[in-house]
Structure formats: C-alpha cells, structure tokens
Amino acid sequence: DTAVSQTPKYLVTQMGNDKSIKCEQNLGHDTMYWYKQDSKKFLKIMFSYNNKELIINETVPNRFSPKSPDKAHLNLHINSLELGDSAVYFCASSQGRHTGELFFGEGSRLTVL
Amino acid sequence: DQQVKQNSPSLSVQEGRISILNCDYTNSMFDYFLWYKKYPAEGPTFLISISSIKDKNEDGRFTVFLNKSAKHLSLHIVPSQPGDSAVYFCAASESNTGKLIFGQGTTLQVKP
Fold first, then answer.
1. Are strands B19-25 and A31-37 parallel, antiparallel or unpaired?
2. What is the pLDDT of residue A52?
3. Which residue of B has its CA nearest to A104?
C-alpha cells in the first residue's frame, strides 16, 4: 500500500499546454510538499501546505499553482508549459511543518516538447 | 546560490570496504541535517539524521558525522554492500523555516 502516490508517473506534452500532477498520502501527515528535480539533479522545494494552508511558496512562476483540497492531497497545476519546466516533480509529506523526515512519492517525469 | 553542496558526483567502492560521502553547507543557521537514499525510478527515502547539538549519530552500518566549525558533514557506510548502490542526497534545514535544502546527490556504486 503506497504511502505517497503521484499520478501520472510520466507526462509528455507540447509547449503551451496545461497539465496537472496529483498527489495523495495515506500516512495521516499534515504537511505536504512539491519538490522539483532539474537537469542538474538538485531537489528544490517549490511549495508546502500544512493542513491545507500554504506555508512555503518559493520563487516559482505564477504558471505553477498548487491546490490542497484536504490534508491528504496536494495537486500541482502548470499552465502554459515551457521547455524549462521539463523535470521530475516529487511530492512529499511529513508530520509537522518543521522539517524532519520527509516521505517522498516516486516522482512524475514531465517532458515538454 | 547553492547552500548545500555535494562536490563528488560519484563514488565507487569495493564490497566490504567503507564508503564515505561528503557534504558541505554555507548557512550557519542550519540546525538539522539528513541523508536520503534514492534508487532509480523511486523517490528519496530517509536514511539517517543529526541535530546540530550532536557531532555523531549512528544507526547500524550508517554513521553521520557533523563538523559545525567546518560546515561539513559526512556519511560513513561500513561495511558497504552492493545493495547500497544508489544516489545519496544530503539535506539541511533551519527548523523555523520548514524548508529542507538538498544537495545535488552523490552516486555510490558498491562493486561485488
């Protein structure tokens, strides 16, 4: 039974399209995150929600919009996709908003053509 | 400006020997440090952590050392096993920010 699950795992799309990645966790955690792993392999935090409240919003283009319908779900919507958005996006969760151990999903590889 | 750096992209060791993975950081406000392990096509998984009030934490074959004055930490794996072959990420946080900052990872290959 997967603890943090993301869909889809792979996404190939054209520039200018809009796409969403969904994330769900069944660990009962109250904090969820989106991280981006770029071509240089750095994992960089994008957003964090605690009990559906946005608590971290890094310098990310407005084309990226997270949405947390409840504390078990955190979705990522990306408008007007650009080539530079190609990356692996990881969802994660933790208990508490002060970072300790994060539980990651398997990642969603987005390729923009 | 990368606050957490792993300057060795890869490391190869023989099975049974020690693996030492290094990590440097620049932010003196970091007070909690973690190591994550990642296999291909999987997400990172937590391995071991250390608080800034300690200089060593051990868990089985894994030991993390923290040198605050040098802003350096290292992960020792003894003895190394082929199943340890993976990408290892160092991460650091300043507890009141809620942000975990990752290095770029070191790929460890343990040869049988």
1. unpaired
2. 83
3. B43
